[in-house]
Write a structure and sequence with these properties.
By secondary structure, the protein is mainly alpha-helical. It has a domain at 38-225: Alpha Horseshoe (Serine Threonine Protein Phosphatase 5, Tetratricopeptide repeat), CATH 1.25.40.390. It is built from twelve helices and six strands. It has a two-stranded antiparallel sheet. Helix 5 packs antiparallel against helix 6 and helix 6 packs parallel to helix 9 (200-222). The protein is globular and about 60 Å long. The relative contact order is 0.11.
């Protein structure tokens, strides 16, 4: 009898586990994607590259003294002491490679596919741009063995000179593909969050101009140290206006531009405190206020009114490292917002709303 009960219990447990497993199998999360496509990955990769521009800008501006901590603000650590460790600024490296991995996914999964040729071209140009910023900052870095996932978790470092050359070649490849496919397809226009405001043919021209512009930057920065394969440029020329990325930003919770959301105003039009801790420095002011250059017009479209405009007003600038409460403080919502509130702003400037 005891044996029968034991076997019955084992059978019931087995049925229970099997039923539970089947129940869990059908209880899927429709909001969690298990597969991706180049059509879905390309727009978010372009957006991610654009969003990371802020990380590079802030790191560079802090390091060379263009902006400083506001009075009473602490926690800047190595930015002030220059005692950098391997743990500092890891986001630039880690996030850049994370984004580049997504870009490589698009390249790999569109190579040789005529229907997705424009996706392939755009991804190659974006890869060149992402790595141009990396090699400018770090010099030698993993490139040829990088972005292979578990296929190679210890990629070798390539010489910066080789990377610059490879990136210029990548721009040429993207240009060649776009020239062979000169009118943007409907699918590409949907995925293109940078130039899709243009007509279908003009959209492709702007991508070629963007590639030319990146290639020019590579050649200028590498100088005579790199033997580039091709130092000529496509006849389309270069970009003469901004390459603006807009995946659908709106004054809605979760849909605001990350920079605006972090340093200006929330979707409810409340000023965000993050921007107040940053202020321009007396050094950068000299390029506007007449000490080095007199340029009040340019100052007026870069900075909040009365911060730098021919003179240096008291209390709006600060020297890096001055953490006293009496030091210059950032303005609300930040020192670069030209306006009075979230709905009253200028159409030209850094924070335009």
């Amino acid at each position: 009898m005891r044996k029968s009960i034991k076997y019955l219990l084992i059978a019931l447990v087995g049925i229970s586990v099997s039923s539970c497993k089947k129940y869990l199998d059908i209880n899927t999360n429709p909001n969690q994607a298990i597969t991706a496509t180049p059509q879905l990955v390309l727009p978010q990769a372009i957006t991610a590259v654009a969003n990371q521009t802020w990380a590079y800008n802030f790191y560079g501006a802090q390091t060379v003294g263009y902006l400083a901590n506001g009075g009473g603000v602490s926690g800047w650590g190595a930015i002030i002491s220059y005692n950098y460790a391997t743990t500092d600024q890891q986001g630039l490296w880690n996030n850049s490679y994370d984004i580049a991995t997504d870009i490589q996914y698009v390249i790999t999964n569109t190579e040789g596919n005529a229907d997705l040729a424009q996706f392939n071209a755009a991804a190659k140009i974006m890869k060149a741009y992402a790595f141009q910023r990396l090699v400018d900052q770090y010099n030698d870095l993993p490139y040829t063995d990088a972005l292979k996932g578990v296929g190679n978790v210890t990629p070798k470092y390539d010489k910066a000179t080789d990377v610059y050359k490879a990136l210029a070649d990548l721009c040429d490849q993207g240009i060649a593909t776009f020239k062979a496919n000169p009118t943007a397809s409907t699918a590409f226009r949907t995925a293109d969050v940078m130039f899709n405001g243009s007509a279908a043919a003009a959209e492709i021209t702007r991508w070629i101009q963007f590639a030319n512009t990146i290639k020019l930057r590579l050649i200028i920065r590498a100088g005579s140290k790199v033997a580039f394969t091709n130092k000529t440029f496509d006849a389309a020329g270069f970009l003469t206006d901004d390459a603006v990325v807009n995946p659908g930003y709106a004054r809605v919770d979760g849909k605001q531009n990350p920079a605006w959301n972090s340093f200006a105003y929330t979707f409810a039009n409340a000023a965000v405190g993050g921007g107040v801790q940053y202020v321009p420095t007396p050094y950068i002011a000299t390029f506007y206020n007449g000490v080095k250059l007199s340029d009040p017009g340019r100052a007026a479209v870069v900075y909040k009114a009365n911060i730098i405009n021919g003179t240096t007003p008291t209390g709006t600038l600060n020297q890096l490292g001055n953490q006293l409460a009496t030091a210059g403080r950032g303005q609300t919502p930040n020192s670069w917002f030209r306006g009075t509130n979230a709905t009253n702003f200028e159409s030209i400037g850094i924070f335009k709303g």
